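re: the backbone from monday

yeah here it is again, tokenized this time
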């Protein structure tokens, strides 16, 4: 059924869509085995090492402006040159910081994708190995 919807989305109508059976080695993944694997735990640890510090930094940086606006408004009105106040500089720097964090996440996500591919490859290899063992035991 999902193959038929995919074919229709590509421009083929239901009359030309074919639903082919899944290959024999495409058994359901062992999700608990994947979750317990070293590669998956490494992936989660790498994501945590990146996301947690960046998130905490972002929260600190983002809430600095409203806290200073409430607690030290005179500090934010301090002119630093060219008619620009410290508050305006801090406000505009948040846009730059948002883009820098996004750029850094894109770089980190490429590494996360490689680690996720490793997890999937190991899961696929272990399924193939266990399928071969199962087929050999029936002989």
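seq for it, each position gets an aa:
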């Amino acid at each position: 059924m999902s193959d038929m919807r995919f074919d229709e989305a590509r421009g083929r109508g239901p009359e030309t869509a074919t639903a082919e059976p899944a290959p024999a080695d495409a058994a359901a993944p062992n999700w608990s085995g994947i979750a317990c694997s070293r590669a998956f735990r490494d992936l989660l640890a790498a994501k945590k090492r990146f996301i947690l510090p960046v998130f905490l930094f972002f929260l600190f940086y983002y809430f600095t402006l409203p806290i200073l606006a409430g607690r030290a408004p005179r500090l934010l009105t301090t002119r630093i040159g060219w008619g620009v106040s410290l508050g305006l500089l801090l406000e505009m720097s948040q846009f730059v910081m948002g883009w820098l964090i996004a750029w850094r996440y894109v770089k980190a996500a490429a590494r996360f994708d490689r680690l996720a591919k490793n997890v999937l490859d190991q899961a696929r290899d272990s399924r193939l190995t266990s399928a071969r063992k199962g087929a050999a035991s029936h002989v």
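The CA atoms of residues 67 and 78 lie 16 Å apart. Helices lie at 2-9, 31-36, 38-71, 73-76, 86-137.
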